[in-house]
Amino acid sequence: MKKKLMLSSAALLATVGLVACNNKTTTTDKPAETKSGEKKTLKLAALESGYGKEMWPELIKAYEEANPNVKVELQSSKELEDELSPKMKAGDFPDVVMLALGRKKALPETLIKEKALADISDLFDMKVYGEDKKVSEKLLNGVLGSTVTDPYRDGKHYLAPMFYAPTGLFYNQGLFEQKGWEVPKDMPAMKELAEKAKAEGISLFTYPTTGYLDSFFPALLANAGGVDLFNKAMSYEKGIFASEGATKAFNALGELVKNVEPSTVANANPQSFTKNQQLLLDNKALFMPNGTWVVGEMKDAPRADGFKWAMNAAPAIEKGGKRFVYSFFEHIWVPEAATNKKEAKEFLSFLYSDKAAAIFAKHNAAQPIQGVTSKLPAELQSLYKVVDEVDGVINGNFVATKPVEGVNMKETLYGQIDSVASGQKSVADWQKSVEEVSQKLGAAVEK
């Protein structure tokens, strides 16, 4: 359907992961001697995923050629957690792990709770291995400092952002070309377009289900008050959802859903959500929040003549305002118990090099670094180019809290949007209920 369910499809957001140390896959037969002495062996754990089996061996070969003092051992598995967990319990840890958050077995989440990930903050001040730029200088604006890279909100980074898939407003570029319409970049232009489209029997907006707005609304928050507002909202800061910036974001989404295609609410459920996605292909709605997986999901669906997939960022609140893109990320990390942390961070720095980016892009894996779009296959460039047009990329989730009976932020924030769209609930009442829930959860944040 979407996000985690779709990560392995379309080779756009396939989850890459860990690899324990003493499995069969190695990249060289015998390490050569180097001037600095015996080679260090770096253990990399990486999930076998939709990026294919050749990507990591190719990357490792490039790194070993660049750094002959290190040999990288790779183990991959489709069920990597099952292989890593017993080894870790026995004290056998890999040095580097590529395994995303959000998987059912939640291994990295468990390690975060146990304070078992290494602090890799200094990685971002290191120069990329083989280049003259720092890692932080290559990263896209906004990808560090989220509730994911900084799970304890202590100003330190424990996970490094790796591959990503941007989300935004999907539209039919062919229709806009046919009509001679400009793609709106802000809410005033959205309102003007809504009237033009309405005159031709086309609705401005649709959404598959309200759950799909969990990447779109955060972008509106950042557009309204910057990355700081978004991060504070994810951390349940008191009063944040009642703030002026948040009010602008709520009103913006309220304006969009006021112009929703009439059948949207009835079909916004797990059984019929593709009918809402079809509205875009049939030119019955102009914009739909979604992620890059939708292209593969709807590849066999009928469509209007001249249909061309394109993606726009969430609109700025005011004319000329800032725009951010929310992206789903995969992260790479170092266990606190890793033997070779220094070498692990050197290897991680190489992963942000132009040489590594070219290898990853060849396998449809995009990193959050400047200029990566041009390295991707042509069919992906049309979707990822949105990142080059905005002020930054955001990522992160609501921080963990102790259970609060009868309280669910996602249901409160997103589950009520159908009622707002149908006119049964006002934007103000919706916003008020979100702030009330946020305060309850803020009091229960796990320290």
From TrEMBL:
<dbReference type="InterPro" id="IPR006059">
    <property type="entry name" value="SBP"/>
</dbReference>
<dbReference type="InterPro" id="IPR050490">
    <property type="entry name" value="Bact_solute-bd_prot1"/>
</dbReference>
<dbReference type="Pfam" id="PF13416">
    <property type="entry name" value="SBP_bac_8"/>
</dbReference>
<keyword id="KW-0732">Signal</keyword>
<feature type="signal peptide">
    <location>
        <begin position="1"/>
        <end position="20"/>
    </location>
</feature>
<protein>
    <submittedName>
        <fullName>Carbohydrate ABC transporter substrate-binding protein</fullName>
    </submittedName>
</protein>
<dbReference type="InterPro" id="IPR022387">
    <property type="entry name" value="Bind_CPR0540"/>
</dbReference>
